[in-house]
TrEMBL record:
InterPro entries referenced in this protein's UniProt entry, alphabetically: IolE/XylAMocC-like, Xyl_isomerase-like_sf, Xyl_isomerase-like_TIM-brl
Protein name in the entry: Inosose dehydratase
Coiled-coil residue windows: none
Keyword set, alphabetical order: Carbohydrate metabolism
UniProt cross-references to Pfam families, sorted A to Z: AP_endonuc_2
Domain Xylose isomerase-like TIM barrel: 39-269
Amino acid sequence: MKLGYCSITWGGVVGHPQGVTSVKDLFYMTHGSMKDAVRDIASVGYEGVEMFDGNLAEYADKPEELKDILGGSGVALTSVYTGANFIYADILPDELHRIHRAAELAADFGAERLVVGGGARRAAGTTEEDYHRLGTALDRVMDIAESFGLSASYHPHLTTIVESPDELDKLMPLTRIGFCPDTAHLAAGGADPAAVIRKYPDRIRHVHLKDLRRDPFAFLPLGQGELDFPDILAAIRESGYDSWLMVELDGYDGDPREAAEISKKYLEKIL
């Protein structure tokens, strides 16, 4: 298995403001420097990086700049994260237009994988039909990714309609997209991450490792929280998955490089 790190910690997650009035432009972003993120990630020994679609879009007109950042640090762009509401028929074409652009950029910059989250919770409440709409849309995401030579996976996430293990069980039979378990989001949604991985071993195409403290709630570097990573890694091995493990931390009060190093040292110890 190869270890990579997600650039979200260098600035946190935001959405492109243009997306407020133009859904097709609602990219995920972090306001941090990708040059700093890649440099720090490489300096503690990770081999890959995952970036948001919006951060790639910033380099669309200057691709050599990002390629030089990655090449100069010896780090591969492993994966690109995007997402959408997916359940609203009127805006779905514009959302898929943006995901098509994200996949195109991912392929242009040498990524292997497209990771998506989403499935909006309606103000009036989630309907069973919403899961069917999400599943159908994710199959279209899969088609888009495959057209660019990318592997696509779905990432359950807090605030979406796939938070809990029951919600994941509703979705999985409705789509052929791969599965990206995020250990902390699964746990925060009420699941045992290792048990979920063991339930869907054949669907795993990507992995996010993240630790969690439930009270007071916080995402944490690996080994700093409550999750049983030896069992999680055992479940991943049992599944036959033998590829990128991407460490992710949505935010950190200290130096993001420090957080990356804490997680790297912990993984070296338990691996």
